Amino acid sequence: MDKKFDVLVIGGGITGAGIALDAATRGMEVALVEMQDFSAGTSSRSTKLVHGGLRYLKQFEVKMVAEVGKEREVVYENGPHVTTPEWMLLPLHQGGTFGKFSTNIGLRVYDFLAGVKKTERRKMLSKDETLSKEPLIRKDGLKGGGYYVEYRTDDSRLTVEVMKKAVDNGATAINYTKVENFLYDNNGKIEGVEVRNLIEDTVYPIYANTIVNATGPWVDTLRTIDGSKKGKTLQLTKGVHLVIDQSVFPLKQAVYFDTPDGRMVFAIPRDGKTYVGTTDTFYSDDPVHPSMSIEDRDYILGAIKFMFPSVSVTAENVESSWAGVRPLILEDGKDPSEISRKDEIWESESKLITIAGGKLTGYRKMAETVVDLVARRLQEKSGKTFNNCMTKSLPISGGEVGGSKGFSTYIKDVVAKGMDAGLSKKDAESIAKLYGSNAPIVYSLAKQTVENNGALSQVLFAKIRYAMEYEFAMTPTDVLLRRTGMLLFDINKVQEVKEDVIEYMADYYEWSNERINTLTSELEDEIHKATVPFEGKLIKQ
Q1: Separation of alpha carbons 495 and 480, rounded Å
Q2: Does residue 317 lie in a domain region?
Q3: 0.85 cut: is pTM over it?
Q4: Is the alpha carbon torsion for 243, 247, 253, 257 positive or negative?
Q5: Cβ contacts of 371 within 8 Å, gap of 6 or more
Q6: Residue at a domain's end among 291, 314, 338
Q7: Rounded to whole angstroms, how far apart are CA atoms 413 and 407?
Q8: Does 330 lie in the same domain as 190?
Q9: 478-500 per-position pLDDT tens digit
Q10: Which residue range(s) make up the domain with 353?
Q11: Strands (E), 234-366
Q12: Is 53 left (phi over 0), alpha (psi -120 to 50) or beta?
């Protein structure tokens, strides 16, 4: 690329996407590169909650609870199509992590710190009320429950919608492009990067006045290349989730519950499945390929048996799983669950800006802090001035639906367009809920459905086309894992349609036989990782 950008962001997870959007809307010339697919790292492997971090009150992380609690509402208002309020049940048992009195006080403080709206403030439940919300909970020692609101999200789609909005505002975003080296001026200051396009295997430079390292688990890898890995470093921890069909685990209510070893785990109903997680163990292997081990699986199955003793879930009932790596800032002597989720910004002698730590919920605020620093550095360097941050009330792509209050009305109004395209009312509604104000584009693609799409339904065909034409999807795994979530929540359907998806994408992109074989193997590897545990051992303190 010949042009010199104001800022280059390295990393296409939620943090990098947020930085790109903030910088672009302030009037900066922005580029972003990601070595995998957008959101392929931590940002597609979370518990899929935009939550306020209730458990951080126990660690007296008052400032963090206040900040992410308020940001939760911002994320929801700017993208109600990818964020949904979810009432969470916190069962209180004799000898459990939370007592009835402390939970009442804690949730009250949580409501205050997080600025929770009146209709979503906590409720304390009796034993009978708790069991009426979720009859599967262990009755022995049950004293009652807390009832409060979290926000369920599709983490990968949230990331992609933020990235699309950044591109709409002028950012240049490229996936499958890996930074291999930094380029320096005569004073030893970073002035660019050398990247490799991993699809075409070409190498070229990108120049920018400021460079931000927002690579999550790979933050220290880039600091090492820069020669600036000193002081604080990352501690990676792994989290695993299991997906079980509702016919086996008929959970009707999201539950945040104790484990036998004193941790807390979520069980959440979604699309006919129940998913349960997460583990929290130290991790030192390749962050590109975390996966479920037998020990991970058995730990979560044990937690389910402990809290839901009437549910007979076995290893054979686990349909799929996912594993993610959390890039936390090292704190010696602490167990994984005790390490702070705070974010920190570092600036090296070469002027590389690095953002590390943090949570999905706080991505927008983290981006604002980083871009404030970038704006100061650009003004010092070139005298340029930029707009103030405007992302707090800026809908992301698909979010132009009148906020959370207007979303249901929007869905009713737009469904007719989907039905005009030949979709059933149910399918038109599901597309509207998933794609928000972008739904009419998906409808128009559905209308173009051609015959002979094999097992591809009209809806899936439209989703694939949309993912390729509007959402940067380059591979079958991009589509089936990250753009649609099918590989996580409908893996049997993936097995049914995978060959037709590959064939359709191969024809669209004109792949060679070698490329088809490579991407078919990649998809099969992801299916294998999701379904078959490896014989691994957890790393413990």
Answers
A1: 10
A2: yes
A3: yes
A4: negative
A5: 7, 19, 22, 23, 26, 28, 389
A6: 338
A7: 10
A8: no
A9: 999 999 999 999 999 999 999 99
A10: 4-43+156-233+340-393
A11: 234-245, 254-258, 264-270, 273-277, 281-282, 318-329, 343-347, 352-357
A12: left
